[in-house]
Amino acid sequence: MACGCSRELIYRPGLRHYYRPASNLPKEYNLNLTHVDYQRDQAIAVICLNQPDSGNTLSRQMALDLLSAASEAQNDPQVRAVVFSAHGPMFSFGGDLKEFRRFGTNSEQLVTVADRWHEAQHCLLTMPKPVVVGVNGIAAGGGVPMTLVGDIVLVDETARYRLAYTAAGLSPDGGSTWLLPRLIGLRRTQELIFENRELSAIEAVEWGLATRTVPQGTALKTAIALAHTFAKGPTQAFASARQMLHASFGNDFMTQTALETREIGANMTGRDGQEGLEAFINKRAPVFSGSQ
Amino acid sequence: MACGCSRELIYRPGLRHYYRPASNLPKEYNLNLTHVDYQRDQAIAVICLNQPDSGNTLSRQMALDLLSAASEAQNDPQVRAVVFSAHGPMFSFGGDLKEFRRFGTNSEQLVTVADRWHEAQHCLLTMPKPVVVGVNGIAAGGGVPMTLVGDIVLVDETARYRLAYTAAGLSPDGGSTWLLPRLIGLRRTQELIFENRELSAIEAVEWGLATRTVPQGTALKTAIALAHTFAKGPTQAFASARQMLHASFGNDFMTQTALETREIGANMTGRDGQEGLEAFINKRAPVFSGSQ
Amino acid sequence: MACGCSRELIYRPGLRHYYRPASNLPKEYNLNLTHVDYQRDQAIAVICLNQPDSGNTLSRQMALDLLSAASEAQNDPQVRAVVFSAHGPMFSFGGDLKEFRRFGTNSEQLVTVADRWHEAQHCLLTMPKPVVVGVNGIAAGGGVPMTLVGDIVLVDETARYRLAYTAAGLSPDGGSTWLLPRLIGLRRTQELIFENRELSAIEAVEWGLATRTVPQGTALKTAIALAHTFAKGPTQAFASARQMLHASFGNDFMTQTALETREIGANMTGRDGQEGLEAFINKRAPVFSGSQ
């Protein structure tokens, strides 16, 4: 399966539209997912981990379903914002260690699971549409980096985080070692990885893993409401911002500002930019279409 | 116009003096600025946005004047520290959207404004002299990245920040997407860009946009006093620090420490380093000349 | 002398074992150190700056001894965790400015000291074993970056930090300009470098220089206890984490997650990963061997 968003976002002059919908998906494309719940609600897609009885653990099937769901959300032109959350009382306990144990000492199957999951993570992190994460409960192990791929991360005030990899003799994955240093700095990343310190929801906000807390039981609902707001926003400008933030640490200042110039030039002369200017000058609320 | 500081600072062995004063400026070089106030005060230059009646918005002329002023400050060998602030009650409301609307759907003029402004930002960020920013009031849109290019950023306790690009259908520029992730991390950068959250002066300090608050109405005055202090400092060592911090995220550890070795070697054997050692050992205050 | 850890950690496919013990050290290798105290205590190495009467300043001999000690800790296969601290009431006052003054205006000797010290810093930062730093007292100048090379940094509640380079006409070294922006962001790094602001232990923790404070006089003792805990941990997984965090800012997301996949694949199919899975499933504490 092609995610369609696996190209890296380092600036290359003259190449603006990185995120092409994969054209090789049949129109009657059927998600047929068992481990992830995918719903389209008007202009948003809602992706929920859907194995609550087993703690929404990341198994082979969960990884495949996540990649399918993320790709569908990216490729559906009707979708202008995405929610990523989970059903049940917890977010995810991370890797399905019972399944991984059955893999034995041949790493091939584990590598396949990790690769597919990393494609799904990358797709959620870079698709040209805002992603709101609703952390409905405990996130452990690989559940932690799953919570990190959004632009806005809403966390249930009772949720907790624990990056328990080294407690099980494992090293972090899921993009933990890429995301955490850019979100919370090296020192706190080390504390999470080497000491498996548990974080409360409030600490997660203070440190920069999450954007803000929400009342108990409201993470999914609040994330959906916010995504509907984003879906009425300037989709192309949001896409530009996602692309540029993703590329930021790989670019020097002049390269990054050249990218900024190109993107603001395209956005300002596009439909939503023109609408934004008109609305600003006439002191009315803008009505964005999301088209270029 | 050549800024003279547009070269990137990634370490290249054997190449120490990146920042050469542009030699092609005539001696009688006349700034002749209308939108920016440029003053030299002993060994410091004071650059102030100077269109207070229109909110110090960034128009084409403002961008050109900023680049002229930044280049002059960089190239004047008498200048050993720079203040960047604004006249009037606000810092800057960002882009001159009325002018940009007149540009219509041809992005060429906007691109020119953005390019010149980005050169000015880069010049302020990388010139081999300390830059103190005084944020005298509200900074919105492109006014926000303008506040970020200094080594020390003093903010009026009543000032506020709002990165309002996406509210107008636009994507951020001015180096926002390069500077903010390095100052405050990805999560808070996303909150500013996607939700246009307003920040108070105190929050700006807590997050790392500004260094500290100053009493209402004193940002420019305090910035000038601090710049005079820096102008009596070890200019070459300050220049080394600026260069190395700018290059930091693009270098691996051994490359960065090779740069540190080269710079401390040059500084310690230079006049200010020798003076610093003498003063330290003799327990007196050093008198730095700023020369090599 | 070869540190054995000077290779950069950017991901290269198919190359997992970066950290080979240097095979060219004779078995009877004698550290014979005068300025650093090196002790092996069961499965940990304890490295202490050992010139307390002169403030543990960084002289030529101190740099050479630090590199010897760091290399020995890295290369001794019995060592599974390392403590880095100092004897006496302070951690380190930084460079031995009296010695540096004797070097005069020929930078060659200073460059040699800086290069050896930077190799030692790199070795502590990247060796495939956890490093716990115990900051027992004041860290000034080059003493500050010395405190930063660990995974966990414990700081005496009475300790203070001051990065005094520019006060002596010098630019920072020791990896300050690489480490600080990644730990505390650019703005606070600038404040430390340009204004030589003094930080308390509590501020150092809040900012992200240190992990947590410990009661007065207990930094070394607590660091030793924690290192013994790490020495019973999954050494290979810790090594993977160190390698990946070191490489993080130089890699894009897909490259970094490819590295994560490779490392978790190797760790899960290795002895400690298999033990970790068994222990997790059988709800018992794991017993890690540290071997692959």
What structural class do the secondary elements of chain A suggest? alpha/beta
Order of helices and strands of chain A: EEHEHHEEHEEHEHEHHHH
Question: Overall 3D geometry of chain A?
Answer: globular
Span between termini of chain A: 28 Å
Number of DSSP helical runs of chain A: 10
**Percent range of helical residues of chain A:** 40-55%
Q: Regarding quaternary structure, how should these chains be classified?
A: homotrimer
Beta-strand segment tally of chain A: 9
Radius of gyration of chain A (Å) = 19 Å
Short structural description:
Three copies of one chain form a homotrimer. By secondary structure, chain A is of the alpha/beta class.
Please explain how this structure is put together.
The structure is a homotrimer of 292-residue chains. By secondary structure, chain A is α/β, with parallel strands linked by helices. Chain A has 2 domains: 196 residues, 2-enoyl-CoA Hydratase, Chain A, domain 1; 47 residues. Chain A has 10 helices and 9 strands. Chain A has a 6-stranded mixed β-sheet, sandwiched between helices. In chain A, strand 1 and strand 2 form a beta hairpin. The first copy, chain A, starts with 35 loop residues before the first strand and ends in an 11-residue tail after the last helix. At the B-C interface, helix 5, helix 8, helix 9 and helix 10 of B face helix 2, helix 3 and helix 5 of C.
